[in-house]
Structures are given as structure tokens and as C-alpha cells.
């Protein structure tokens, strides 16, 4: 499995491997509709997942992650990152950056 965690990501070894490193990485990069195949008990299954379902699944993975806050902050500070980071979508992170800019102008 390809590791999608950037080299300059905060130290994620202090609590062990993040849960996302052992999950389906495509789910963190939502599309309107996508498919993924998995094997369970020797049987191959294909699952079709909508963007909302991906988001819900990924946010559930992020919710129990010990790196959630660091991951979210990392992605908030890097607008070029796509996908869900620390339980936040690109849209969520953009809203946070906008609110922070507005607060800093006061």
C-alpha cells in the first residue's frame, strides 16, 4: 500500500502508526463516486461508495486517531493538501483559514 503521509508530517511514531496508514488511502481523497475492491475470507468484494459515505468512514477513522489535532493543523497550514486530514475536508479547512484571517484583522 502506498504511504500518502508526507515526509515533513509531524512525528507520528510517538503513538504508533496512525490509523489512516492501515486503511484504504483512496477514501481520504473523496470523489463523487468511487469503487474499491477488498478481499474478505478469500472472496473479492467491490464496494461502491459515495462521497458522503467516504467522508463519514474517514472521519470515523480520524475521530479515534491520537494525531487528529496535529494532522488537522498541519493541513490547515498547507492549503495545497487535498483530501481529508485530521477529520477535516478541504472545505472545512478553508472555512477555518478564513475565520482565522478574519479574527486576526480585528
Keywords:
106 residues; alpha+beta; 2 strands; 15% strand
Description of the structure:
- With 106 residues, this protein is an alpha+beta fold.
- It has one domain (24-105).
- Helices cover 36% and strands 15% of the residues.
- It contains 3 helices and 2 strands; from the N terminus they run E-E-H-H-H.
- The chain has helices at residues 51-63, 68-76, 90-105, and strands at residues 33-40, 43-50.
- The chain is globular, with a radius of gyration of 15 Å.
- The N and C termini lie far apart (46 Å).
Set out the fold topology:
Blueprint (H helix, E strand, L loop, with lengths): L32 E8 L2 E8 H13 L4 H9 L13 H16 L1
The rough form would be described as globular
Largest sheet: 2 strands, antiparallel
| Euclidean distance between termini CA atoms | 46 Å
Q: Stretches where pLDDT falls below 50 for ≥5 residues?
A: none
> How many distinct domains?
1
User: Rounded to an integer, what's the Rg over CA atoms?
Assistant: 15 Å
Residue share in helix: 25-40%
Mean pLDDT: 79
Please give the number of β-strands. Answer: 2
Looking at how many chains there are and whether they match, the oligomeric state comes to single chain
The DSSP helix count reads 3
Topology order in helix (H) and strand (E) letters: EEHHH
